[in-house]
């Protein structure tokens, strides 16, 4: 859009005298405010209570898209999509509760707006979580999955791994693998029929816990492999157990932005860019390099 300041002259009014100047100024300001509200509606929100929200905003910016920090329920009215970042899901849930965000977050999901949860954000989106702290924690839900909160162990068992990501590579180009950064990461143990698995990860079968168990096994990894799910899509919801915002590979972000475009097709719902220009498919080829956030 570039510079869209509007004056009455431009919308067809002819000023007859000097006295009209203040009226012109006032109406120009009103139109400017209205337009600015319309364009804010098209930004991507990032829940900014705790965790890696800055890194998501930086990743969006690398794609030319404006990310808006969300801390209050009413701010959800002004965005077309939301990212729930990684962090610590119990802490994030307490803060979300304190700010009365859960009802608005649930409405946002139910309205069909695109929401992407990474790591703790994935836990938030799951219909069911196991391995929670005593007393559990509130979830937003919507994603027909059972998530184990700390499936891969404690902070020191964090790791990086190459994941096969056929759907991502198909849609976004680039290599068939994605380097997943797992920080005290959750995993999806069960997913409903409407959930599309975008990536899984091999685990020794003795590590595998069934969803009725909240206990983590730290036994030796010598058994034959099973698999856990680490990236899914279900309609308007995207979930990743790892942290794409900590890599320079922005393909998950551009994949999510395409979900926003899909929802917005045929409507006024589109993404606002940092420089105000429309985001085209080939404008930002993915940067495939490592390491990670610096
Ligand atoms: N397992 C953590 C939790 O329960 C999430 C870790 C992360 O977001 N990196 O909140």
TrEMBL record:
<dbReference type="GO" id="GO:0008614">
    <property type="term" value="P:pyridoxine metabolic process"/>
</dbReference>
<dbReference type="GO" id="GO:1903600">
    <property type="term" value="C:glutaminase complex"/>
</dbReference>
<comment type="similarity">
    <text>Belongs to the glutaminase PdxT/SNO family.</text>
</comment>
<dbReference type="InterPro" id="IPR002161">
    <property type="entry name" value="PdxT/SNO"/>
</dbReference>
<dbReference type="GO" id="GO:0004359">
    <property type="term" value="F:glutaminase activity"/>
</dbReference>
<feature type="region of interest" description="Disordered">
    <location>
        <begin position="267"/>
        <end position="294"/>
    </location>
</feature>
<dbReference type="Pfam" id="PF01174">
    <property type="entry name" value="SNO"/>
</dbReference>
<dbReference type="InterPro" id="IPR029062">
    <property type="entry name" value="Class_I_gatase-like"/>
</dbReference>
<keyword id="KW-0315">Glutamine amidotransferase</keyword>
<dbReference type="InterPro" id="IPR021196">
    <property type="entry name" value="PdxT/SNO_CS"/>
</dbReference>
<keyword id="KW-0456">Lyase</keyword>
<dbReference type="GO" id="GO:0005829">
    <property type="term" value="C:cytosol"/>
</dbReference>
<keyword id="KW-0378">Hydrolase</keyword>
<dbReference type="GO" id="GO:0016829">
    <property type="term" value="F:lyase activity"/>
</dbReference>
<protein>
    <recommendedName>
        <fullName>glutaminase</fullName>
        <ecNumber>3.5.1.2</ecNumber>
    </recommendedName>
</protein>
<dbReference type="GO" id="GO:0042823">
    <property type="term" value="P:pyridoxal phosphate biosynthetic process"/>
</dbReference>
